[in-house]
Amino acid sequence: MQARLKWVDGVCFLGETGSGHAVVMDGAPEGGGRNLGPRPMELVLLGTAGCTSYDVITILRKARQDVRDCWVEIEAERADTDPKVFTRIHFHFVVVGRGLKAEAVERAIHLSAEKYCSASIMLAKTAIITHDYTLREDD
């Protein structure tokens, strides 16, 4: 895996992924930024949510669950002193489908957290990570 990061101005950077996608990162105005993009640590959270969601959806589909929608709401806390690592992260999954089995959703979240999601397993070295979910029936 490769990536490239180029400084643009102030604390604004343009990141390019090895797969050819770009993202702008910037800081808050009080930190010298112009608020042109997400903060790098916000992207770490979003990347982790993407990683675990990918796993959960894949596992549920393999289990023949009729998933129609899924999103993750994330709350995190960071250390007060440098390095300001994440100390607590909570993932709340909302899974929408038809006839979804709670056991299948619990299993998918557990497998992602404990076996498949490299990002969450890495962040678990410094943070207490918790998960819960809500099931919604699709009409």
Automatic annotation (TrEMBL):
Transmembrane segments: none annotated. SUPFAM superfamilies: OsmC-like. Coiled coil: none annotated. NCBIfam families: PRK10738.1. This is Uncharacterized OsmC-related protein.
